[in-house]
Structures are given as structure tokens and as C-alpha cells.
Specification:
Strand content: under 5%
Radius of gyration: 18 Å
Helix content: over 70%
Oligomer: single chain
Shape: elongated
Largest sheet: none
Order of helices and strands: HHHH
Number of strands: 0
Number of domains: 1
Distance between the termini: 33 Å
Length: 155
């Protein structure tokens, strides 16, 4: 039995898990704020925050190892495929957005107090809306990566 399907599924799962917190947190924080008036992140948001803060290194290492295993199984020539290079470039850009734009701005969304003024709430809503737009763009990039990986178009 070949290990390829297991390594591939693990690699895909880790690749998605690395981006999930950055994509979902703006929505989880919005839902919690709307329900509770800003009393702090709920269980889902706390889990995503923990995963983003603590799981990133482990997931990244697993992604690196499974990616290396896939290249070893498929051969180095797979790295010359234009669709793969484009998908890897999109993934790298998505990671840069996640770590240097989305992540710092998400931390600011957590601090809305229940006794916040209307002006603070308006600023929070505007910031949250911008973060959701970033999440939409990141999700679209993940979709494009999945399309490239599944169809392997001739570019």
C-alpha cells in the first residue's frame, strides 16, 4: 500500500488549518460581539485564537515535512509545473497577508469592552468589516489554489 494518499490528505489538511484562523476569526468575533455586546471572545473564537497563537509552528513544520515527502514521492520535476508554482506563490502571499496584516488587526478586534462608547463601537465595526473583506480575499485565494491543484491547468 502506498502512503501517498495519506501524506497528501495530511498535507492538504495542514495547509488549510494554517489559514483557517485568519479566515474565520473576523466572523467568529463579529458573531460573538453581536450576541454579547462585546463581552469577550466566545469558545470558537478562543479556540481559533489559540490555534493561531500556539499551533502555527507545529502546523507549519508538519506542512513542511509533508510537502517534502510529497516532492520525494512525486519527484523534483513536479516543482517545474507552472500551475504548482502559481499555487505555491498564492499560498505564500496568503500566508504573508495572514501573518502581517490579518493577525495583528484581529488582535485589535478582541479589545472591545461592553461599556465602549458609540464612537468606539463604530470604529470597531468598521475595522471588523475591513477584516472580513480581507478574509473574503483570503478564502478566494484558497479556492483558486484548490482549483489549480485539482485541475492542473496548462499555463
Amino acid at each position: 500500500m502506498t502512503l501517498f494518499p495519506l501524506v497528501l490528505m495530511t498535507h492538504i489538511g495542514l495547509a488549510v488549518a494554517l489559514l483557517v484562523p485568519s479566515v474565520l476569526l473576523p466572523f467568529a468575533l463579529r458573531a460573538r460581539s453581536a450576541r454579547s455586546g462585546g463581552s469577550g471572545p466566545g469558545p470558537m473564537a478562543r479556540t481559533l485564537l489559540w490555534l493561531q497563537g500556539n499551533g502555527t509552528a507545529v502546523i507549519g513544520l508538519g506542512l513542511l515535512l509533508t510537502g517534502g515527502a510529497l516532492v520525494a514521492m512525486l519527484g523534483v520535476q513536479v516543482l517545474r509545473q507552472p500551475w504548482l508554482l502559481l499555487a505555491l506563490s498564492l499560498y505564500a502571499a496568503n500566508l504573508i497577508v495572514a501573518f502581517f496584516i490579518q493577525r495583528p488587526n484581529l488582535r485589535r478586534l478582541i479589545g472591545l469592552r461592553a461599556d465602549a462608547s458609540d464612537a468606539e463601537r463604530a470604529r470597531w465595526r468598521e475595522r471588523a468589516k475591513r477584516q472580513r473583506y480581507v478574509s473574503y480575499a483570503m478564502a478566494a485565494a484558497v479556492g483558486l489554489i484548490a482549483f489549480l491543484m485539482s485541475t492542473k491547468p496548462q499555463l
